[in-house]
Amino acid sequence: MKAYCPKCLLGERNFKGFKRMNIEIQNAVPVIRRRAFAAVLLAAYALASMNSQVSAQPREMIRPLLAQAAPMAGPSAWVVDTMLRMAGVRATDFLIDLGAGDGRLVINAAKTYGARGFGVDQDSRWVSLANENARREGVDDRIKFIQQDLFKTDLGSATVVTMYGFKEYDTKLLPRLFALKPGTRIVTHDGSLGGWEADARVKVPASDKSSGPDPASWISVWVVPAKVVGVWRSQMPSANGWVDIDLKFEQTFQKIFGEATVAGQKVPMERAGLSGDFVSFRILIVGQTVLFNGYVQTGRIVGQVMESGGRALRWRALRAPG
Ligand SMILES: C[S@@+](CC[C@H](N)C(=O)[O-])C[C@H]1O[C@@H](n2cnc3c(N)ncnc32)[C@H](O)[C@@H]1O
């Protein structure tokens, strides 16, 4: 088989070997399951600090360290495992791998975490091998591989999308990825998404890459944010009855900026943040900090409001028409 990607780990030379050995898929490291964004940040932090230790050491030190952390697994399995951990993959997830090669990402997601999903590849030989690997690993009831152009793949069922650095492809896919369900995680190996900054990015040693003195892979993860841009109307209780609170958000991918109007007066909004469908911010009302958070649903935000030192009260906002 012809080498199918300049950076690919599985060129002509390795294709038959992988088929014969069915390597690494069996050797995934058992890991603790983590939840969406908290998982992303924690894993990124841990991996980044681990990596800073690794990269500070001579190259020959890397192998024993990897061997200790992931017995019998090569760095490629390490990268796959890092991607799945950064995505916080769990049994309820549906993972789609765009350009699936021998299927290791989807197979590991099914085998280690119980996830379902599918992979697409334009090359029928990889599709056959990946389906064969899935059968051999006993996960073919939960996953499948299809010969398909990744640009024509319906991503609607995904809760996790994985890709191996397609460079210009990534940017081309950006609008479709940004439109996915809030909370969907996108993980790339050596990829980027144009102006959409990753929520977390780590460098991991990839001693199986042949180029450069310090071969490494960059793993990045994005959490698809809800769309909060626009105006929202809400109320909160006060000693003198209900107070009108209007919120106006601007949004650039997962970054939000807002202002609030409380009983007709503009007040500063601080620490506005968005992770998937969870939004939080605080506003100052007559010298008091009032905290708001909630889940963004179609046309409304449902959550709670709390004055400092007070108790949390239910709160909701409705999207203003227009
Ligand atoms: C570098 S490999 C990645 C394999 C796998 N995702 C992994 O991380 O181990 C990239 C794969 O993408 C496939 N590919 C490239 N362009 C594609 C396209 N437009 N549609 C579907 N598959 C594509 C190639 O055939 C190749 O198998």
Observed structural traits:
322 residues, binds S-adenosylmethionine, 8-stranded antiparallel barrel, Lipocalin, 27% helix, 7 helices, 7-stranded mixed β-sheet, alpha+beta, Rossmann fold
Write a compact overview of the structure shown.
The protein has 2 domains: 12-223, Vaccinia Virus protein VP39 (Rossmann fold); 230-319, Quinohemoprotein amine dehydrogenase alpha subunit, domain 2 (Lipocalin, Beta Barrel), CATH 2.40.128.120.
Produce the secondary structure layout.
Blueprint: H1 12-21, H2 36-55, H3 59-69, H4 75-86, E1 94-98, H5 104-113, E2 116-121, H6 124-136, E3 143-147, E4 160-164, H7 168-178, E5 185-189, E6 200-205, E7 216-223, E8 230-238, E9 241-252, E10 255-262, E11 265-275, E12 278-285, E13 288-297, E14 300-307, E15 313-319
Parallel strand pairs: 1-2, 1-4, 2-3, 4-5
Antiparallel strand pairs: 5-7, 6-7, 8-9, 8-15, 9-10, 10-11, 11-12, 12-13, 13-14, 14-15
Helix pairs in contact: 4-5
S-adenosylmethionine binds next to helix 5 and strand 2.
